[in-house]
């Protein structure tokens, strides 16, 4: 007899009922038996005690019912019930055929990039997350995979470097970070699929989260997120999330995860599931605060990069793909020293890399998150050294505005009205 605590698979003969679809905010908190949304190993969990919170199966191994090892789970690198549960929940939210959680966002990208072989090519943006840039560079020097960096706001720039023989992946971020450039996912996916049927269109959707944008519905083949950001929401864990559109792609991804051993630990899987339930309320509040902050900075004459800014060149395009502008924006002051003073004069806004947490953060990307991109490359990609990035949290917006205004005044960045405070 199997140990009663070891979950058994749902009967494979049970009649298939397509799961009812709810709106995103409902789906985030509505956690069901996972079997309907995924098709890989370890997808079915039946807790004998009907625990309201999914148990943490903090175990490396699972006892097998027979000598031929026919148990649902055997080894946590290959599969763990807590991990399966969060994967199934995220697959539903991302509208993926199957989802995977791994140890960090970079680890998610590493898994995806291993689908490309030496001699093959990748096309990626020119305003990428710093760590993404570093990993692609490493793959170029150590893995024989060349990456073409192009301006992904221009689909024709992508088409120019596509090579049906070599291109195996087109990697997009939209909005990019920190310049908030928008890539047209449906148009690019159509062009890539028509010219390079073997290439996967991959989207890093960390900035939007699946609550605001679901790239698999827009034509992408693979989506990934840093779960460290909005999905978990509290900066208390690191995780990466991958969603695949087809089971064929999912199988290739699972193979790499099992082979390299980067699957998310049971405890972090549990924390991620706990965090993701509040994604909708956090994102709505963070976004509403971000709109107020962006409008304030625009009214004070700063150049503000934000998809919710009607002056953004791709304001309309973003609205066709996402249900909101998100909560990350950047602005230019015109002077690096002024920017440094602003960042160091805030009290409420914490100086930190990263975003997606409930508290507000301020940073200078060229000095922090994007410092691994060499200065000449930053210059070539028009990344302003004075750029300040704001990652807006759920605080009272009045406090955030007052703190920012005071920092701007201390730094002398409000020339028209130095005495206003
Ligand atoms: C943070 C981040 C990553 C990397 O995720 P980690 O969890 O830090 O490894 C990748 N892409 C974007 C856009 C990010 O913001």
UniProtKB/TrEMBL annotation:
Pathway where this protein functions: Amino-acid biosynthesis; L-methionine biosynthesis via de novo pathway; L-homocysteine from L-cystathionine: step 1/1
EC number(s) from the headed UniProt entry: 4.4.1.13
Molecular function per GO: cysteine-S-conjugate beta-lyase activity; pyridoxal phosphate binding
Protein name, as recorded: Cystathionine beta-lyase
Matches recorded under PROSITE patterns: CYS_MET_METAB_PP
Record-listed N6-(pyridoxal phosphate)lysine modification sites: 229
Keywords of the record: Amino-acid biosynthesis, Lyase, Methionine biosynthesis, Pyridoxal phosphate
Cellular component GO terms, alphabetical: cytoplasm
Highest rank taxon of the organism: Eukaryota
Uppermost EC category: lyase
GO biological process, one term: transsulfuration
Keyword Lyase recorded: yes
Catalytic activity: an S-substituted L-cysteine + H2O = a thiol + pyruvate + NH4(+); L,L-cystathionine + H2O = L-homocysteine + pyruvate + NH4(+)
Region annotation Disordered: where it falls in the sequence: 1-27, 63-82
Cofactor(s) required for function per UniProt: pyridoxal 5'-phosphate
Family of this protein: Belongs to the trans-sulfuration enzymes family.
SUPFAM superfamilies: PLP-dependent transferases
UniProt-listed Pfam families: Cys_Met_Meta_PP
